[in-house]
Each structure stands twice: as C-alpha cells, then as structure tokens.
Specification:
This protein is an alpha+beta fold. It has one domain. It is built from one helix and five strands; from the N terminus they run E-E-E-E-E-H. Strands 1, 2, 3, 4 and 5 form a five-stranded antiparallel sheet that branches. The longest helix has 16 residues, at about 90-105.
Amino acid sequence: MTGADAPTWLAEGCPAWCAREHLEDDHPEDRYHHSEPSLVPAVAATADTVPVTASLESMTLVVWLGRHVGTPLVWVAIEPAERREPRLVLTEESARALHEHLGHQLALTEP
C-alpha cells in the first residue's frame, strides 16, 4: 500500500506478500504487514499430556508471515484457527531451518 490510500504513518511500501489493509487509526502495536494466511488441516496435540498423543485433535492451522512496519525482521506464525494457543512464532531464518529439519525427520519414515 502506497500513495493516496496509505495512512500517514506508513512511510514505506508494503512487501509483495502483504495482504493487510492499513488504516490511519491502527494502533502503533498493530502497524505490521501480514500475508494472506494459509490454512492447513491438521491433527495436533493441544495439551502437555502423557502419552503425548492423548490430546490429539483435528484442527485447522493458520500459517502467515508478518513484519512490523519500519523493521526488517520477518516472522512466520503458526497457530490454530479456533484459538490463539498454542502459537509458534519463528523468525524467517528459524522457519527455514525448521522446514529443512522437518524434511529430514519425514525422510526417516520413507521405506
């Protein structure tokens, strides 16, 4: 968002992935770029149980990118659509490392 439609506090262009509508009266803590979320059907644990699989339930995970206006730090958020906990927020570098290690772990299950 730039130009006449941009709020006065938005002194930078949005990243190509930003899908958020920025408004003049956005609270300073809400002034961030937000990607269009990806929805991932999943079965995940929702509590710290023994065994860990005792709290598995179906849910939709929401995955999205964010970056506060005026800062270079991009993060990836992964959270249930139905609630905000548990939430995992990773830097872009950490998310890339997690992606790599998930691939390694999943490769162990291949015949």
